[in-house]
Amino acid sequence: MMRKYPFRISSHLPKAGIILSAWAAVFSLPACAQGAADGGFDAYVQSLWPVAQAQGVSRTTFDQMTAGLRYNARVIALDKDNLSSGGTSNAIPAFAPYKAKHVDAARINGGRSVYSRLRPLLSQIEAKTGVPGAVMIAIFGHETAYGKVTGNFDLPEALATLAYDGRRRSLFEPEFLATMVMVERGVPRQVLKGSWAGAFGYPQFLPSVYLRVAEDGDGDGVARIWSSEADAVESIGSYLRAAGWKNGEPWGVPVRVPASLNRDSIASQLNPARCPRVFARHSRWRSMGEWRAMGVVPEQGNWPADHIQAVLLEPDGPGRTAYLLTGNYRAILDYNCSNFYALSVGVLADEIHR
Predict the structure, then answer these.
(1) Suppose 279 and one of 130, 218, 272, 352 were both cysteines; which one would form an S-S bond, judging by CB atoms 3.0 to 4.6 Å apart?
(2) Does pTM top 0.70 for this prediction?
(3) Are 189 and 65 in contact (CB under 8 A)?
(4) What's the DSSP call for residue 29?
(5) Tens digit of each residue's pLDDT (9 = 90 or more) over 249-291
(6) CA-to-CA distance for 175 and 188, rounded, in angstroms?
(7) DSSP string spanning 269-305?
(8) Which stretches does DSSP call E strand in 53-156?
């Protein structure tokens, strides 16, 4: 199969004094007036030409990409709302309600349908990446409901607005530039639609992630993750392989933990710089054989090989379903660093595969 791999921007991978009354007025302006309300936006966008040129973007492409771009106050409002909704509470909700909402009948049945339809292709991708097809389909389902919800924000406009705002310019400016590289290398400008935060296509990749890992799964020469299920699924497998997925290991195992387990003795001593609240909930690494010797038993009667390393997570507290999580779970966390997200992807994958 002839394959055309997207180009890389290895140095830009993600893997983001106006008085209050004037600021509020900007948020109330219609889209057509937002650019005029913030004259510095155009100057900022044009200042990026030397950087874009250094990354191989032609003047024609740069002008095409920046013509008519407007500061989008709605994007900034959503960004600020997302920031404030994170909260500062240390309280962690139970996983069970999240699981019920995200591993529901619609996602399970939809996933099984896609899995069945793409099974011959998935077998090829599994052989190439080592990633189970059900895991790739589960991410597809979580990200965009199997392609039904991909976002309708203009990607260059949203990313340029977020970069200009400045709060996370180090993330969003390279992503804005990556959209130009994509167009320079053949991606149609009109398909660059996605979320307010810059994710697009069926897998919801940031532009730099597309350039790094997207693959052509249907053999037409282009990685069309915005319209091709085959391309989207193979690109998800490519992402997880690059994130360290190990062939032959499960993502995790639902287990029951004995009440007698001394949890203090297995508490992690690590202080990770990335996603500390996520990893703080994980125990120390132990082999499956060691967990079995401690009285931990799988809920379904299946047990991975004794040498496989795993951490313990009890997302709903002692006495409820817990999970032994392997290094492959960390690959899912690389996609979205949330225990609830990664757990629900794994559980949905298991349901799809049944």
Answers:
(1) 272
(2) yes
(3) yes
(4) S
(5) 999 999 999 999 999 999 998 888 889 999 999 999 999 999 9
(6) 17
(7) ----SSSHHHHTTSB--EEHHHHHHTT-EESSS----
(8) 153-154
